[in-house]
What does this fold into?
Amino acid sequence: MSAIASSLISLSILFVLHTVNFLIFETHGSILLTPLTVGTAELILAALAALCVFTRPSRDTTLTTTVLLMVCTVWTAVGLSNISWEMIIPKLYERNISVEEYSQRDVLLPGHGVLIVLYFIFSVCLILHNKKKDMVVFMLVASLLSVCVIINTWTNFKGHSLLFLSLAFVTAYVSVRAALEHFTGNTETKPSDNKTNFDDKRVIRYALNVLSLSPWVLRSSTLTKNTVISFIWPLVSGLFLLFHGISGMRRGNTTISTYSIVDGLFWASLGGSMYITVIKDFSEILFPAVSIPLSMILLTIAAVSLHSEILLSLEYVLLSGFMLTLTFKREVSLAAFTWICFVVYMYGYIASLFKSFSFKIQLPVGQKVFSKLRQKFCMQKILAENKVEMVNSSNVFESDPMLGISKYATLENIGYVSNIISVLSFSWVPHETTLLSLPWQLIFGCFIQFVVGFIGFSRGKTLESSFFLIFASFWSIWGSLRSLDLIGSESGMSLGVGLSGFLLVGVVFLGMSITVNKVWIGISLCFVLFMLTSLLQVLGISDGFIYEKTAAVLYSLSLFYALLSSTLKLTFVREVLPSGKPLLQISKITKYNDQILLASSRRARGVKEIAEKLKTGGICGIPTDTVYILAACCHQPKAVERAYKSKKHGKDRPMSVWISNFKQIEVARHEFSSLLWDFLHEIWPSNVSVVVKRGEWVKSLGLGESEKYVGRSDSIALRIPDSTITCHLIDQCGPVTVTSANPTGEGDTTHHLQVLAKLGIEMCDGILCDGPSRENAISTVVDCRDIDNEKLGFFRIGLTPKSAVLGILHKLLEKRSTTNGDSHMNGIANAAFDTKM
It folds into this structure.
């Protein structure tokens, strides 16, 4: 079932549950479910609905996804409110505080009020575009329900059950339609739909930022009295922004996803601090130890983003001012910054909708104002100015520092920011309010850094990713202990033993950092010093706090320098602030980069250079639709023999042949049966290798004496890979023989950085660098030698399941039976690989 249908079904169940509960209340005056039960159900079902969309995003359903995430955010927040209300009320009675001071109006009005405005703007755009009328009806009913919720905070209003029933009906209708479209494959759209390229990433980001800001907007309008009790809106919206940003990075949009993650970190941590303030009755929400450095980081982000979009830059300047006025309790300034931020976010929300629907009127956001400045520093101009030198150089890593960067490129910067906030909140929060730093430690220090560490491995920087995992472990444990005021207690010696373990790991990583660069040496050294000072404090040494604060400042400065260096490198595509060369050079990529061809797959020139290397007898590591492979041109027998012997294959591990189009094996057509020829057309391009009978046609490949190294005596494996880069390469150099790009018995190679590390310069003449593999899985190998008897064998089951291959054969046999087997079918040939086009 599609993600949209699953999400809608979860929401429909939620609305049915509310319908029954309110119907019993309106008819009998009693409730069926307690607020705690209802809140738990709301939280689970709404979060489940959002999870369905986050984990299975689709570019074809971005508009519906946006509406669903807005709805899920609201009901997740309402569910959290109902749950927390049961926990807050006893705390209020303990402190003799009137419950009326924490009324439900202050809790529900901000989110529902802003949601009505967001829905209204969205609906108007949909009506003007004449698109998704079912979503218009859905948002209309949801808006009416929000109006009833707001009215109910002043007076007892009946009719909730009817509205919830209407929402349940509309949601069920849309979910059934989405499920039918998914199962039948009928996803035809109107001609006007093709004009829409809905930018859900920006729209969702702006909508969630507006929801996060809603408590202060309503408070400055005197419609509510207490902003702290409205913690559910920034907390839930921040968490949704985090997941939205991470999901966006998985889809390859690093820029706006990075901004979403930064926003989510701030709002979720602020919402957590607000909740602690409600429980503990603190007078502060934010503290200068976090707000001042974070404001500087936001201003840095604003300065960097200025070259791409003025609106984004303005947002972070205003958010920095909002945070500082909130910290130092400047009511007039806070109200001003709140409303300016609100207007700017709403402007961005409307501008994103207008752009998505391709309206004639477009609201400017300042994207091209500084384009000349960017072009001045971008790598294209650097390459243009040094064209001759760059073309003749094989040292591509020197000329292109962005080579091999992955879709998770900016996560490293997020890790630096998170560490800065974590260390400052750990060391500089006043002792009497240490509990307020807990959300910042858990979100900045624990959650996001674990994400950075685990996902960061896709960039091939395993040591740096391991650093972030160590940081995450340290802040999640020691940050929580400090926030709970447990450090320095009677368990000091026990804590010291644990901290000594971290210290030992830190020293090990310090030694390993000399192989990375000087920036990481500085970060590792400061981290070790910081743990030493924490150990002094745990052991009761009086000057531990002074040493700790000094080490914290040094640690923060080293991280901030790393942040600036990495950000400027990503922005201007060259190293502005030097990170320094490693003290010990062990990387083969950097050691032999002047002796081996390292070409970028993102440039046509890079593919051409590797093709020329293969045509002249070289063997190269290239990316595919699965993992990296070692290739040699079929018409270069010595290269084929060298590739075979360099891997030290046994006779049970023969090489296979890859082609890019059927014209390259046209000579084999008279030797293949019509069924086999049709089957090959149906199943290729794909990650399926097909074993066929050996024949005279093999000689046309030009293998010569190296033919004995390819296939077996009676068979040979063929494949057209499902990779544009690989097929484009083979188009230029002709059919290639391939084998895995790793020594026999070792794991598959899933990143271009691993190719040279595993094979060495003697076994590889060039690498087509494409970052992490698209799929970390092997291909499926199918035996088609007995296909004329309608039988297939399977040597290996990989990415494509056995059932899918058999399904293709059965479908082909059914097609052939309708023609009585007399006519030859061409199958589904991929025109993209036709050399005449």
Summary: Confidence is low (pLDDT under 50) at residues 187-195, 377-406, 822-837. The chain is about 60% helix and 5% strand.
